[in-house]
Amino acid sequence: MPERQYLYKGRILNLALEGPYEIVEHAHAVAVLVERDGQILFVRQYRPAIGSETLEIPAGLIDPGETPEEAARRELAEEAQLAGDLEYLTGFYLSPGFCDEKLHVFRATHLRAAYAQPDDDEEITIEWHDPRQVLQAARDGRVQISASAMAGILLYLSERALGGGVVGSG
Fold this sequence. Notes:
α2 packs across α3 (147-161). The strands form two sheets. Strands 4, 5, 6, 7, 8, 9 and 10 form a seven-stranded mixed β-sheet that branches. Strands 1-2-3 form a three-stranded antiparallel β-sheet, with no helix packed on it. A hairpin with a 2-residue loop joins β4 and β5 (39-47). Helix content is 22%, strand content 43%. It is α+β, with helices and mostly antiparallel strands. The longest helix has 15 residues, at 147-161. The protein has three helices and ten strands.
């Protein structure tokens, strides 16, 4: 295996060459699926990288020394001003052909109010939507969604299709 040569080392990502491969080392992340009465909680925010607003489920990077569950609790409080019981649903790599970022997805139930200061650079709006409508709007190009939102929607819809009932409660 060729040695990894770093071209850039940053705060949340590093760019390296390993033989013919360009590799992005990226901080791992969490996302939290929150459901209420057949709707999913989304956060709407502007994303400079794509020059557009997105609908996402609460999500963010795992800080150094933080477990995925601790990060999920923090992100849920910061972005949605909520706390709850967390259940680990799955984890997956976002784009393993060039990036090592792994997303850990949790479900929050038994919701209660919480407070945490949002990040200084985040201007987010909390919205509840029918996941089928968001999925259709994304298919039609009427809304941009993140990979975490797509994962949350598909996990929610697949559980309902399999007879698992309502995802989450609270």
